[in-house]
Amino acid sequence: MPTIHYILKDGTTREVDAKIGASVMETAIRGNVRGIDAECGGCCSCATCHVYVDDAFADLLPPPDDMESALLDAVAAERRPHSRLSCQLSVTAAFDGLRVRIPETQA
Ligand code: FES
């Protein structure tokens, strides 16, 4: 079972075991990770699941589609090169050890 590491606003890390096929957002919600509100439930319309993917894992992920990219342009926190909406990231076995940082504006 892959483990996802969520780096919180205070610098601490929460580790949550993920189910294959679940999203990184769903995994965070199941693990009660602070800062992932997911107000739209994962339908790519709220951007409250924004995360910064660690550089070491960025190449593992498929690029954002047009809808995700457009929403990332409107996120509250700064958009960075590895910004992603965690609801759009489906966990695979290759995600084991994935590190994502939650923007400071999402507390
Ligand atoms: S949960 Fe709303 S955009 Fe990801």
UniProtKB/TrEMBL annotation:
PROSITE patterns (UniProt xref): 2FE2S_FER_2
Cellular component, GO annotation: cytosol
Residues in 2Fe-2S ferredoxin-type domain copies: 2-106
This protein's name: Rhodocoxin
Record GO biological process: P450-containing electron transport chain
Family indicated by similarity: Belongs to the adrenodoxin/putidaredoxin family.
GO molecular function: 2 iron, 2 sulfur cluster binding; electron transfer activity; metal ion binding
Cofactor(s) this protein cannot do without: [2Fe-2S] cluster
CDD domains: fer2 (cd00207)
Organism the protein comes from: Variovorax paradoxus
Gene expressing this chain: thcC1
Record keywords: 2Fe-2S, Iron, Iron-sulfur, Metal-binding
Origin organism lineage: Bacteria, Pseudomonadati, Pseudomonadota, Betaproteobacteria, Burkholderiales
